[in-house]
Amino acid sequence: MSQTVDRALTILPLLAEGPADLGQVADRLGVHKSTALRLLRTLHDHGFVYRQSDQRYRLGARLFALAQEAMENLDIREIAHPHLVRLNEQCGHTVHLAVHEENEVLYIDKVDSRYPVRMYSRIGKPVAITVAAVAKLLLADLPEPERRALAEKLDYPLYTARSTPNAPAFLRELEKVREQGWATDLGGHEESINCVAAPIRGADGRVVAAMSVSAPNVVVTADELLTLLPLVRRTADAISGEYSGRTPGLATP
Q1: Collapsed DSSP state (helix, strand, coil) of residue 105
Q2: Which of 101, 155, 159, 192 pairs with 247 at a CA distance of 20 to 30 A?
């Protein structure tokens, strides 16, 4: 039975490469055409493959529907939380998880610092969209016309002397973030708080969330915080792998 299942599952990535006829499927599996035909018929009956008019087989609509349903039911917060906790245990600083929803960037998870000085951010609260590192990552992933349209609509409050002053500066920052694959907020929202962030990507490579580590200057300097960037990026990559089904498990130190 396990061999039959293994063979059936081997057919799916073959057909993901494009339509294939019975002979090609049999050759890939290393079986007789009659065996390949039985497997294809079973997959066809369940909607996982479809036989075209030219007698070649391609992936069926049922497979795409199941994949879409699975993606919609994935809870990025549930998947990310153990990773965020582990990162917090390793570095001791505040860790955030954020998503972009309806023109706002919201914190959806937070693990507090172990140090006495705490941040006042709250789960469900919008971030300062023009300066927050997580917001830069999420907005940098938007197509260029959407980035430009959004940047033109935003207000640019000067929280500190390091705040993003206007739309052109914001667009330049987003382009930089897009190219380097990570972001910072070094005193842009609060002069005493620094933050470094990395993107979490889905199976299609698009940014679905962003995570960050934040700390006040009285605990670590901005330069010291930046040394954590490789660890933050490894954690984000581990979450991305688990979310997209590529690599289960927690990030290694």
Answers
A1: strand
A2: 101
